[in-house]
Structures are given as C-alpha cells and as structure tokens.
Amino acid sequence: MITYNLMDTGTDSLYEHLCKCIKKDIIQGNLMPGEKLPSKRVFASNLGVSVITVENAYAQLVAEGYIYSMPKKGFYIADVGVLKTREHEMIPEKAVSLPKKEIAWFADFSSNQTSSELFPFTIWSRGVREILSDSRVELMKNSPCGGISDLRENIARYLWDFRGMSVRSEQIIVGAGTEYLYGLLIQLLGNDKVYGVENPGYRKLEKIYGSYGVPCEWISMDEVGIRVEELEEKNVDIIHITPSHQYPTGIVMPVSRRSELLQWAADKEERYIIEDDYDSELRLSGQPIPTLQGMDVSDNIIYMNTFTKTLCSTVRISYMILPEKLVPRFYRQLSFYSCTVSNFEQYTLSRFIEEGKFETHVNRLRNHYRKKRDLLLEALKRSRLKDRVTVSGEEAGLHFLMHIRTEVPEEQVIEKARKRGIRLVPLSSYYYGNAKEQNVYVMNYSSIDIDRADEIMERICVSCE
C-alpha cells in the first residue's frame, strides 16, 4: 500500500498535495504504467483523510492524464512516457539573458519618456470615471477590428482641424503601437514586396520587417530627404518615411521632393508610401508641415501617427489611415483580428479629444518643450562647448542634432560621458553601413532635468577633451 506524509502540505490543500505526491511517483517511475491504485475508501482510511480528498486528487490526475479509470474496476497508472521533474533542480545562472539593471543616468539623451508631471492625470482619471458610469453597455461590447467608431470619428475630426486632412473614419485603423500596425500592413500588402527605410533612420523598422521575413532596403538621403532615384535602383515597392521631421536628422522634406515621391508612387501599381507623422503635433515654431497624405491624388499614401509622443510613452495607442482603395481589402482579409486597444482606453481617449482637452494638452506640451529646449540651448551657449558645437533640427520634435568639433574619437567621447553619467547616442548608430558624420549626437531632451543643464554641458565638455 502506497502512503504519503500529509502533515506538511504548505499552502496546498490536502487533495492538491496528495495529487502532487502521486504525480511525482509516476514521473520518477515509482508507480508503473498499468499499476492499480488503491480504492478511494481504502486509500482514504490508510492516509487518515476523507474519501472526498482522495476522490478530488484522483479526479485531477484523470483530468491531467496521469491515471485513468475503468468502470467497476478502479484507477490505474497511465503511460505518460518519459517526463522529467524540475523540482530541486538548480537553474543555470546564465540560462536566460535578462536586461541589465537600468543605470541612474545624470542625463539620458536616448530616452523619450514623458515626465509624470506632464500627463493630465486629473482630467484623464475623471474621464475614466465618467466612461465607467455612462458607457457600461458599450464597454462590454467587442470593439470592431479597426477600433470603436467614436474614437475614429473624433480622430478624423481632429485631423481635419489640426492638419487639414480629409479622411473618412472607416479609413482609420487603431492599434496598440505602430509596431503592431506595421505587422498588419505587411500582411495586407504582401511579404513579396520590397520595403524601404531611410538611411539613417529608425533601426527598429529593419528588425520588424526582418521578423516578418520581408526584404528590406536602406535608402540613402541627401540634404532634403530620401533619394527617389535609389528607390528605382533597388526596386522598392513600399517606402517608409518621416517627411515632416525626419528621425534622426530632423530634415523637413520640401514640396519639390514630396512631388517626386508622389510621382514615383503613382508610376506603378501597388507602390505605397508609409508616411510616419509620429511627432507632428510637437512642431515648436510655425505652423504644422502639411502632410503627404493631404497632397496625394493617386491614393497611395498610408498615414501613421501615435499618441505615445503627446500623451506618454506607455500609452500604446496608435493609428493608421489607409488609402480608400485598400480599405475593402483590409476588412476582407484582416477583419478577423480583434482591436488590440481596450474599449476603456479607446472611449476615454475619444472623449478626451471630443471635449477639446487633447488640443489643450498638446498646446501645454508645446509651451513646456519649447521652454525646455531654449533653456538647454542657452546652457550650451554659456558653456565651454559654445565655440565647438553646431546645432540643427531644433525647430520640431523633441530632439536636435549636436555636432561637436573635437579631435577625440566618437567612441571615447561616448565612454567618457558615460563615466560622468551622461548617455549620448551618436547619429552614426542610426546608419546602415558606414556613417559620414562622426561626433554628431542625437539629443532627445524630453526626459532631461533642465535644472541640471549647466552641469550637463560641463560634463559633455570634459568628455570631449
């Protein structure tokens, strides 16, 4: 008769502990396939527990396939093959490579995180409470694959008011982050297409396209944007660009180059331009740059934008606007997908936009970041770096380029700055292949403590000596 010590069950109930004991004996080969287990009453009496405890343990083991029952005959050990238990095994110390603990930087110019002081917590939480009170029925309904109609309609109205874009709500597809939307586009447009990205550009795009197994070409840029002739040379079908504020160079593409691109797309069937307008709301001087989508008459522009820049980096709500001709194909091929943004967030954001609070919030952000940028640049002009630095691309978005004239190699500048708590990201790291420029740094300043500006510049200066 098999028996077990049921005195020390830990946090398990009696039947759970008994179940684990039997399972362990089966895995270790102490109980062999075909061997009969004691009847429930006899086993319960031998263990000093209730019949219900044994009955529940047997039922769980049957459900998991470790034992089986035969009517009027009893319970028997099943053949479970060769299984290994991890109990009492030591996991190798370096079996899994986990991210290193984040360094507490004095200034991290790689980060685009939003300060908690800038997020409208009070207004947002009030909106959440109102939605929970007023829209209970709607919250429980499954969202359409493209997102709830209220949000898409409010986005369409906002784009008309802010960007002069005339789009139907049906063209708008909402998703949790642009990376997810890129995946949808690849499925929609086909993995037999050649995708192009800007060089220098956002390196994650190459990884996303690579993860889907689609060919990806790096297209070089000149002083006004992506080189159209290279699109022809490399047989690109779909080009991903950031024309209103190229990342990371900050180039604003002029209308002449935009016209060339639109003509390139119109010259051949199934050519498309993905216009990433990721920080259009945060142009810090002058009016927003008109979109390519607004200029397009051939229906070849896929417009993408996100709320992660204007709300915060952890609010993963993005959207794309499909050309009219792609909308039927999208719903025919991909409508089986569920929208990846919860109804709670969609309805809250929709009301936030509808009541004008989003526009007010964006205006507040612009004022804040304009002041922050100016203070940082003023600290630069006061510093010992002033005669050795050229700044560009500071009029839009939340970064600028800082070109430092120094004999110290770029790698040494970065390492010396790191030792002083300053994280610098070189423009060269955004290039595929060899970079033309050295000691040019992409200065993302959204998360910088501006009260440290003078000390930050001094530490960078020392790193260049």
From TrEMBL:
Ranges for domain HTH gntR-type: 12-80
Record has DNA-binding as a keyword: yes
Gene Ontology molecular-function annotations: DNA binding; DNA-binding transcription factor activity; pyridoxal phosphate binding; transaminase activity
PROSITE patterns, sorted: HTH_GNTR
Keywords, comma-separated and alphabetical: Aminotransferase, DNA-binding, Pyridoxal phosphate, Transcription, Transcription regulation, Transferase
Protein family: In the C-terminal section; belongs to the class-I pyridoxal-phosphate-dependent aminotransferase family.
Name of the protein this chain belongs to: PLP-dependent aminotransferase family protein
Cross-referenced InterPro entries: Aminotransferase_I/II_large (IPR004839), HTH_trans_reg/aminotransferase (IPR051446), PyrdxlP-dep_Trfase (IPR015424), PyrdxlP-dep_Trfase_major (IPR015421), Tscrpt_reg_HTH_GntR (IPR000524), WH-like_DNA-bd_sf (IPR036388), WH_DNA-bd_sf (IPR036390)
Lineage: Bacteria, Bacillati, Bacillota, Clostridia, Lachnospirales
Pfam families: Aminotran_1_2, GntR
Domain of life: Bacteria
Keyword Transcription: yes
